[in-house]
Amino acid sequence: MMNGLRMYGLLFRASIRSRMQYRFNFWFSSVMLAVISIVEFLLLAIVLLKFGHIKGWSLAEAGWLFSVLSLSRALYRTVANDVHNIESYLVSGELDGLLLRPIPVLSALMSRNVSFRFGEVFQGIGILAVSMSTLMREGQIGWLSIPLTVFVILSGAVLLFAIGLITATAGFWLTRITELQNITEDAARTAVQYPMSIYPRWLQGILVGIIPVGFANYMPGLFVLRGDTGWWMLPLTACIAGALFILALFVWRFGLSRYQSTGS
């Protein structure tokens, strides 16, 4: 385990050095990702500023949900960006080259094409700071909410990684998984950027019970922001993230054992 982590660290640093050889592209893509995220939040902010709230959720609360999810996603895509891009490895046969390396395939895949999401991190921290300071001034939350929020962000990153890895594993049988990723990662994540109470119950059930991305922000947010659930919601969130992570690793190993080389 420790050897695997040490090897991943070495490969991670090597990937950073290679990406920084093209610094303009690196920083330009980071800024563009931040701009896209800011525009998404501004659309929500415009609606909230006009109507005051959405299903009882204020702009500050919605900002917390949005920024927590953004930071979790940024962490996931920083440490394991190419897990999301596995389709290109399968189609081109490049995954065969990773199989020949004397390190775990997942570690090799995670350490390639490292993508630092500085823009997303900075905008996420900025929105989160403004949202939480507003809620503190209103007396809705206290200082304890800060470490609880960090806990939610970290568990959310594990959860999103697990969902992404399970989806990527489907590529061993389907090869083309872009449409599936659009559902399990992109569409589901976009949906929970906003308060889930705006959706019908059947959709809330999908986002909590089938693709449990709702546990990345909304479900723990009910306790952190409103105390609507008991303290058990946070350990439950961590348990779900941990269990899904273990399941994802098992599914990945099983899928990899069934992988058929392209022969290219």
TrEMBL record:
Name of this protein: ABC-2 type transport system permease protein
Organism per entry: Paenibacillus cellulosilyticus
Record keywords, A-Z: Membrane, Transmembrane, Transmembrane helix
UniProt keyword tRNA-binding present: no
Family matches, as InterPro entries: ABC-2_transporter-like
Stretches that traverse the bilayer: 26-51, 148-174, 202-225, 231-252
Transmembrane in keyword set: yes
Superkingdom to which the source organism belongs: Bacteria
